[in-house]
Amino acid sequence: MQVNQDVFALNPDPQVQVDYIGQGKHKVVIADYFYQYPEKVLQLAMGLPYTDRFEIVGNFPGVRASVNVDSAPIIASISQLWGAPLTPFFTPQPVVFQGITNKGFRLNIGQRQPHIDQDVTAMVYINPAESCVGGTGLFRHTPTELERVPITPDQAIRSLADRLELSDEFLESAEGYENFQNSMIFNPLFACREPTYINDGNQFWELLKMIEMRPNRLIIFDGRCFHSQYIQPHQYTEAFRINQILYLSHT
To answer: CA nearest 150: which of 137, 136, 165, 161?
Structure first.
């Protein structure tokens, strides 16, 4: 699909706020009025062909679509707002939209608790004001008191493993580290028992902050921090929740 680059023209003067969340003071950047023509971005997003194929969406609880346009100006702007150079995690980096509905969709157990992303996550909420509700929650894992999982084990992870009297083998390979996370942090027993998003948390997950969904709002945060969609069961049963997602890395 041929898309005019002007659709993604950036507002030269967004309203920016920076917050620091949790005991780790994890940075969250919020930029309102990010795009200059948000109605054009919404129109484009609504007209794309979406898919729920696992190789495209993974464990994301919805559908995704992409369009091949030059995302470099968007990433450059996000880098400036974040205060450090960022590069695409995937190459090439198309513009990716994703949609969520509660109508006829049943969450699996992995979708009923927080998750982590590759490095830095940037997301633009695309919905118009009349269908903007909920947002994105950031969480602390109360059994371990962790607020994020580093890409490779750090001293906090190694100290936790020592307290749990786990073998060093868990942290000496990528597979072992993933098994450690799945058993000690993302254990299915910690998920929300009802078939809903974790939202306000439970005895295993403490909600640190809910970032409110607003039209044309960009949020940037450390994707290694535990996070999840904040969506109540009665929301998005008619209109889709639509956002643009970018997975980025520190250079």
So the answer is: 161
